[in-house]
Structure prediction request, 495 residues.
Amino acid sequence: MAVVEGAELTSRTKEFLSSNRKLLINGDWVDAASGKTFSVTDPATGDELCQVAEGAKEDIDRAVKAARAAFESGPWAEMTPNVRSKLLWKLSQLIEENADTFAELETLDNGKALSISKAVDIPASIENFQYMAGWATKIDGRLMTLSMPNTHAYTLREPVGVVGQIIPWNFPMLMAAWKLAPALAVGCTVVLKPAEQTPLTALLLGELITEAGFPPGVVNVISGFGETAGAAIAEHPDVDKVAFTGSTEVGKIILRAASGNLKKVSLELGGKSPNVVFADANLEAAVGGAATGIFFNQGQVCCAGSRLFIEKKAFDNVVGGLSDVAAGMNVAPGMDAACEMGPLVSDVQLQRVTDLVEQGKKDGATAVVGGEPVGGNGYFYKPTILTDTKPDMSVIKEEIFGPVVTAIPFEDPNEIVAHANDTEYGLAAGIWTRDISKAHATARAIKAGTVWINCYNAFDPHMPFGGYKQSGIGREMGPEVLDLYTEVKSVCVAL
Prediction:
């Protein structure tokens, strides 16, 4: 176990990292069938944190069988909604009791600032479990009056069955909560595969799921790689639904793999979100919102406001203010109390961001601030603002997934919607203006699943989240997420 020097870790964190972590299958912690393990590293140093079991096709098959048995028979199949609700609430309490450990593991594993893990990721995860605990007792059908006489007709809303869930590395704990909570609330069983870069909080969550009293097989946690474990979930003939968060490229692969048994699929994918600042906006607030929109979580956010459109009259003021923010940010290991932005998650991600920015500069873009790695140990990249871009540049078209924003001036407010919508993505957008009519009209015209007005990155378990176009299929959170994990059955009775 290697940990950042001087870090004061909880005893549970130290214990967790002191031994190899196994797979959770049917309520038991077991080695991978192959006996293989792989290394999980700290992106701030490149040092190994621990070894985890490398699950693959045989392990997924065992987990799916356990999930199927739990769904079809046993205590979970017979459990009433109010008992499921209590289990979810109990799980939220256990997470809260271990919040410091979850935050430390998230920071060590992902790289984000410990202050952010403590203030955002873990509290929001708890909130999601609590919110969905309330929904467990409110999954209702409806009574219908048909045109046919002497009939009694109604609908039932039933759990879809065995669900494979594949979560990303940018918000490992929160994405697990977004997916597990609604699936369990409606009565599904789950095979959960965390990203190979960041499996630790999902494995700790598995321990608490068992401690909370969920029956064996209801939740199975398989660490492993996308090409093996993830692919096995997507193509498995006894998985009824797959839920994936990650890149659009991988989402398309999963969609094709799921076609074998036409399993239900929900996808929360990439983005290249426009953040539009009109000249009549509160520019100080807009600068702060633009910084949050691109530098939060090192820019490793699917809805990051990576295309910053600024009305020309305000361009210099906004770029100047944002440059001051970027230049003054403390880029440091996440466990450092002064950290404002941590490292990227891996050397692979650092190289991707570096290559895209270098290509942008070759194509004529100017790095006003940043534009290069920090250097030294770890996978750190400087907060970066690019100007002098053109619409066909890769830095405009491709999702960079790093702390890199392109600042783009515009003159005609009537044309900005066309520019904002000029992307294959449609996940989110931001609008900054004091004109309420302009705000609402622009929000309606932008093709995105979430539009923030005079704010950015505002989330709540009650508010659905998902994308238009190639940003995905379906919605996470809110009542809408229940549609992803239920089937509707019509029943008609002749009286």
Remarks:
- Residues 274-460 form a domain with the Aldehyde Dehydrogenase; Chain A, domain 2 fold (CATH 3.40.309.10).
- The radius of gyration is 23 Å.
